[in-house]
Design goal:
361 residues, 7-stranded mixed beta sheet, alpha/beta, 4-stranded parallel beta sheet, binds 6-O-phosphono-beta-D-fructofuranose, 40% helix, 13 strands
Amino acid sequence: MTIKRIAVLTSGGDAPGMNPAIRGVVRMGLALGLEVYGVERGYQGLMEADFHPLLLRDIGGILGRGGTILQSARTEEFKTEIGRRKALHNLNGAGIDGLIIIGGNGTHQGAYELSKMGYPIVTIPSTIDNDLCFTDVTLGVDTALNTVLDAIDKIRDTASSHQRAFLIETMGRNSGHLALMSGIAGGAEIVLIPEAPMTPAQVLEGIQAQYALGKPHSIIIVAEGHRPDTQEVFEYLHARERECGFTVRMTILGHIQRGGRPTAAERVLATRLAVAAVENLTAGHTGVMVGLVDNKIQLTDLAQVVSCHKGVDLRFYDLATTLEFGRAKLAKPVVVAAPPELPRLEDNGRTKVTLRAPEEL
Ligand code: F6P
């Protein structure tokens, strides 16, 4: 079948990089002589026939903008066959021959179901969670990482000024990728990820060891999927501040991680994936996701994509623990004993603690 008219949509959680990807799809599509339509609000717009042609001027100036000009949505109805039939009816009615879908995990489930109904689809992986297999990185990750890093740097300033242990919660759903990478890039003392959980008591032990090393702060990055969750770890530590040595605070970064101007790497990746998506859709290579593996475009069947769960690469966790928490472990035999009364400050402004030699333990 010759493809003459294509559509593009963004679905699920927005991610920086979606706009440059839309731009790439439209520009490449028009360059190949296709008509390109934009679908508003993801699968919801597909079911409501909310789509319109996209021309060059419609995508002007979006390369450096966060979010998605097409808007996004999470919809339950598309998970049903009735919902998907509505979408197919609307696509066929508008003479749209193929679809490029930009989104994350849930979006790929929907794309797979629709492609099984015989509709030509190519997907572009986009989520700050980086939890899709068959691509080294998803759109949104690089920008989100830089946003988290900026926050860590700022929080460290205030944490050091007040001798505090700070829990910083990152997004990532069930994946620890964002937490781990930002922890490495930000020099966090401890990183808590779902793939390598720690008990609050272990975190306390780590903080004590950092304190004993003379650090003015302790930065603990917590992935939102870690169990026990950030609040629980915070309450445990907050109730034991004297044992920590530091006072304890918590910041949940939340949705600022999803916004912001896409970085240079993001824009380049988005453009490469968009061009590959249009080329493959028009060449009839459909029912696939375009990913980037070892810096090369790779196509993977949607069936494989949806049946794979990508955890973090635990070699990076080892790296982080060797450089940071590992040092704490080296210092482990020196344990900080909680002062009996309220801590008093020494001349240098630090809380006085008593250190016991290993043989005393
Ligand atoms: O999947 C992206 C993501 O930002 C996750 O990291 C987070 O758990 C979730 O979406 C938040 O979803 P919502 O914006 O619907 O609250």
